[in-house]
Structure formats: C-alpha cells, structure tokens
C-alpha cells in the first residue's frame, strides 16, 4: 500500500510539473502575442499621428499663404494710393 501511495504521489508530482510547464509556455505565448499586438498598435498610432501632423501642417501652410496673399494685395493697394496722392512736380517753363 505504501509503495502504491508513493508511486501515486510521484505520478501526481510529475503530472503537476508537466501541467506547470505547459501553463508557463502558454503564458509566454500570450505575452509574445500581447507584445506583438502592442507594437502593432503603437505603429498604427504613430502612422496616424504622422498623417494628422502632416495634414495640420498642410492646413497651416495654406492658411499662411492665403494671409500672405491678402497682405500683399493690401500692401500693393496702399502703396498705389500713397503714390497717387503724392503731388506731381510742376514742370519748369
């Protein structure tokens, strides 16, 4: 009877070690999958951020160019008005 119990104990110990090793391998695999998914998400977020940044810069550039164009036109009109307002010299006879 004692030998049977020792054998049973040994058998259960080996089974426990086997199940533990399987569990640890499953945990490692889940971690690898999680890390891979995290990297994929980070990569996707980085690409999305870069796209949004490029779009925002393009919008700012367009707004700036429009403002510069308006400023040039106003400056040209002001210059034209001031040059027309300057009295012309009277020709000498």
UniProtKB/TrEMBL annotation:
<keyword id="KW-0403">Intermediate filament</keyword>
<dbReference type="GO" id="GO:0005652">
    <property type="term" value="C:nuclear lamina"/>
</dbReference>
<dbReference type="GO" id="GO:0005200">
    <property type="term" value="F:structural constituent of cytoskeleton"/>
</dbReference>
<dbReference type="GO" id="GO:0051664">
    <property type="term" value="P:nuclear pore localization"/>
</dbReference>
<dbReference type="GO" id="GO:0007097">
    <property type="term" value="P:nuclear migration"/>
</dbReference>
<dbReference type="GO" id="GO:0090435">
    <property type="term" value="P:protein localization to nuclear envelope"/>
</dbReference>
<protein>
    <recommendedName>
        <fullName>IF rod domain-containing protein</fullName>
    </recommendedName>
</protein>
<dbReference type="Pfam" id="PF00038">
    <property type="entry name" value="Filament"/>
</dbReference>
<dbReference type="GO" id="GO:0005882">
    <property type="term" value="C:intermediate filament"/>
</dbReference>
<dbReference type="GO" id="GO:0031507">
    <property type="term" value="P:heterochromatin formation"/>
</dbReference>
<feature type="domain" description="IF rod">
    <location>
        <begin position="1"/>
        <end position="93"/>
    </location>
</feature>
<dbReference type="GO" id="GO:0006998">
    <property type="term" value="P:nuclear envelope organization"/>
</dbReference>
<keyword id="KW-0175">Coiled coil</keyword>
<dbReference type="InterPro" id="IPR039008">
    <property type="entry name" value="IF_rod_dom"/>
</dbReference>
